[in-house]
Structure formats: C-alpha cells, structure tokens
C-alpha cells in the first residue's frame, strides 16, 4: 500500500541550528505511529513541517503521493491533515460547544454564509454534541473554555481535531500535563478512534507505557535525525535507541516528577 | 424590548417639540451606526483600526459633493449613499488586502497613515472639497423637516442593527469571533483568517460610509473635520464605554458620549472649566477602562449571566488534582 504521508530529505534550520535534519519517513495509511525522542529532538518542529506551520529549508512533504510542501496550513487542513497542539490552543473565551461547533462548521465547508443565524444549523450542533460526548466532556458544553481544567482542555482539543474529520490526525502530546487519573480516559478516546480503522494517527508522546501497546510502529527522533523506525518491539530492542533515548527518558522523568 | 424603545423613539419627535433634542438624538443615531461598524472590527474581529474616519469622511464627502454638484434631490441623496458605500467598499478591500496580513499594531499604524493621506487629499483638493473651510450645500426638500430626517435616520439605524446582528450571528460572524480569540487556531481549523478580516473591514467601511453620508446631511455642511482622528477616537470611545463585542454597547456608548458632550459643554456658561470638557471625558474614559473593561453592556450582561449560572457554579471550579 502506498504511504499516505511521506517526507523526503526533510530539513529545517533556524539560523545555525538544524532542528530537523534530512528525515525520510513513510506513514502507512490507517495505522498509528508514535514519535518519541528526548526534549528538543525536533518532534514538534517535525509536526509543524507536516502541518504547514513551518516551511522546510530543504526536502519535500508528500500527501498521498502529491507534493504539499508549498501549501499553507489552511490548505493542508482542508486536504485532510488535522493537528492538535502541544500547548493547549483553543478559543479561550468561547464555550466548549462553540469551540467544537466552529470546527464542525469548517468541515462542512460553511465558511462565508453571512445571513442565516448560526443556530439554524442544527446538524452542526448535533455533531458537536456527539463529539463532546466522545471525548467525555458531556455536561460541560456551556462552560467557557478558559475555565476548563487542563485535562478538559486537552479533551476539547481532541474533539476539535476530530470534528475536522481529517484522514490524518497529528496529535502532539495529547496527555501532556494531565493528571494520571485522566490519562486513561484520553487513551480510551485514542483507542476508540483507532478502532474505527478509518484514521491515520501520528502521535508524539512521552509516556512510553502508553504508546507501546497502542502503536503499530514507533519512530525515534534524536537531535533532529531519524534514529530508528519500526515496530514497538524492534525499537525496544534497538541498542542505539536505548542508549540515546530510553535511558535518558527515565532520568528526565524522575527529575520532572 | 428594543422594539419598544425604537417605537418610543419614533413617536418622540411628534410628542416633544424640542428641536435641540431632535437634533441631538439624530446625532446619537448617526454615531451609533458608526460605532456599531467600528465594533465589527474592534469587538468582533479584534482588529484595531485608527483609520475608521476615512470611510466616514468618504461617505460624508460623496454625499455633500453630489448634492451640491448635481442637485439636492432625494434621488441624488440615495445615489450618493450608494456611491459612497461602493467607494468605501473598494478602498477598504484594497487597504485590507494589503495591510491586514500585518500584526495588529502594525496594521493600526498603517490605517492611521492611510487615513492621514485621505485627510491631506481633502485639504489639498480644494476645487472639490474647498479644503479645511468646507462648504455648505442644500439638503433634499424632504429633509427640510428635521423630523422627517430624524425618522429616516432612526429607520436606517434599526435596519443596520438588524443586518449587523444577523451578520455577527451567522456562521461567518462566528468565525470572526474565532479570529479575534485565536487567529492561529482558526487557521489550523481550515478557515483563512485574512479573508474574514478583509470582509469584516469591508462591511465596517461600508456602514461607516453610510453614517458619514447621513452626518453630512444632518449638518448640511462638510469640511475636513469628518476625516480627522477625532471621529475615529469618538467611535473607539463609544465602543469601549458601551461594551465591545456587543451591538447594543456602541449604541449605548454613542448616547452617553453625545449626551455628556452636550451637557458638559452646556455647563461651560456657568463654570469656565467646562470649556475644557474634554478633560472630564478623559477621566471618565480612564475610569471606564479600569472599572468596566467590558463596557457598560458587557458588565451588565456578565452580571446577569453569573446570576443565572450560579446554581452550577461549583462545577466550574477546577478540581484540585487538575491543577
């Protein structure tokens, strides 16, 4: 099967610093691939290159075989590449429902309708409600997004991404900063999405235990370079990875917590 | 309730024969239209423009020049409103396209520069505008009666209000609010913020031009003061004091500012300090921003909302383990 997402020699430099260095990767459709790597390895930068927030210094990004390197983030989202953000990025002064509804509206391509009242679009509301339920936020529809707890904001973020109904989901640390009790709920959401078998999911994650049983494959970034890409077992057994990353992670973790 | 107020205002000139009040209210209506158009930019889309006066002035000059040069009839008046709006639409479209890509404060500076350009144009193009001296012109026969003009302006205010309410509550309007809240996120949802900002500035420009046309007719005189920063600042003050992000707010703000302006300058006869009423205005403005950052309407609305949601308030307190 052709890869749905592919990069060739993808490189970006910020001044003298090479954040992502000639990464060649292929993403098979309808799989879940995790990206791991220590802090500063270029994971989020790599995401930004895929989603179009940043333009690469060199190299190409292909979506279904079509080069999308020169496309804007807007165009890529419309094409089918949706992303969530590591730093919670919602509309702070709008309600949960309105946040999700805006995303649904974008998917339905209702962009320049100026005259009809927005509540006439009942189907948008219904769909937004359904998604809110899926991410376990029911009962909080009318809360203002800025008043949500951190975990709830992450869930909202995922609901907005799902609302776009894109083929590829780029999830940037969906459980970052969440309390341990909330993590399983998010994992369930991701598992549910994966179970539908319709989505290609690319996931950045720090919590190793979480991705091991969830991922079809794992790729490791280190200092901007692609260190390894393979099944969870291969990665665990890979010695360079162990030296470069896995040892470091657990050290980092003990420091962080 | 708004309907009742509108009807009460419509009956008002037939009950009261105070000419001052009729003129003052007409002025309030006109500035309400201007302030509402400004709020589309400031309150809904989150664009700070310091050049809103140029669209107001464009409407004012178009109407004044056409009524003077062609003939002072109703037809010319309506046509001139149309021409003014069209001009404002074209110019706001091009300016928007060129400048709205910029970050907010650069945009604000550029609008200031462009509106300054129009002010200089009006000063120097003396053959048409007679510069700073301005010129008087005849209003259409129909408007000789102040009451008729009052009713027409009120009707236009109501129509503009209804139109803008529709506009901000449409799916399009909701995206405008999203742009205000978080432009980058709006983009990643697949909306192109630039398109929304340009359309918002065209709508605001067109409505400001309409207000300008009415303003010129209300004075039967036009000079370069319609293009000055003062007009923009008035609109800004009205919007902020009344309440940004609401449509009623700018109307309330326009009423308050016009009324205080009227009364404070009236007091000047007895107390010379009120010659400088603008000082008091500054103080009121500072107090408003400190104590009512959401404006009058915004604050009231928040109070009401809090009361209605008090019952489930404990829910919204973040749980400890989430912190």
Could you explain the architecture of this structure?
The complex is a heterodimer of chains A (257) and B (323). In chain A, strand 4 (58-63) and strand 5 (66-67) form a beta hairpin. Helix content of chain A is 39%, strand content 24%. Chain A is of the alpha/beta class. Chain A folds into two domains: 1-80 and 167-182 and 198-257, P-loop containing nucleotide triphosphate hydrolases (Rossmann fold), CATH 3.40.50; 90-165, no CATH class. In chain A, helix 3 (96-107) runs parallel beside helix 5 (150-164). In chain A, the strands form two sheets. A six-stranded mixed β-sheet of chain A has the order 6-7-8-3-9-10, with helices on both faces. Chain A has a four-stranded antiparallel β-sheet with strand order 2-1-4-5, covered by helices on one side. The model of chain A is unreliable at 249-257 (pLDDT under 50). The longest helix of chain B has 27 residues, at 19-45. Chain B has a domain at 19-228. In chain B, helix 4 packs antiparallel against helix 10 and helix 11 (229-242) runs parallel beside helix 14. Chain B contains 15 helices and two strands. The A-B interface holds A 51, 53, 73-74, 77-78, 82-83, 85, 89-94, 98, 101-103, 105-107, 110-119, 121, 139-140, 142-143, 147-152, 160, 164, 179, 181-182 and B 166-167, 169-175, 177-178, 181-182, 184-192, 195, 199, 309, 315-316, 318-319, 321-323.
- The portion of residues forming beta strands of chain A comes to 15-25%
Low-confidence stretches of chain A: 249-257
H/E series of chain B, N to C?
HHHHHHEHHHHEHHHHH
Q: Number of folding domains of chain A?
A: 2
The stretches of 5 or more residues of chain B where confidence is low (pLDDT under 50) are 311-323
Structural class from helices and strands of chain A? alpha/beta
What gross morphology of chain A would you assign?
globular
User: What is the number of beta strands of chain A?
Assistant: 10
CATH architecture grouping of the largest domain in chain A: 3-Layer(aba) Sandwich
Order of helices and strands of chain A: EEEHEEHEHHHEHEHEEHH
The percentage of residues in β strands of chain B lies in under 5%
CATH class of the largest domain in chain A: Alpha Beta
CATH fold group of the largest domain in chain A: Rossmann fold
**Quaternary form:** heterodimer
Number of strands of chain B: 2
**Mind telling me the C-alpha Rg of chain B?**
21 Å
Name the strands of the widest sheet of chain B in spatial order.
Answer: 1-2
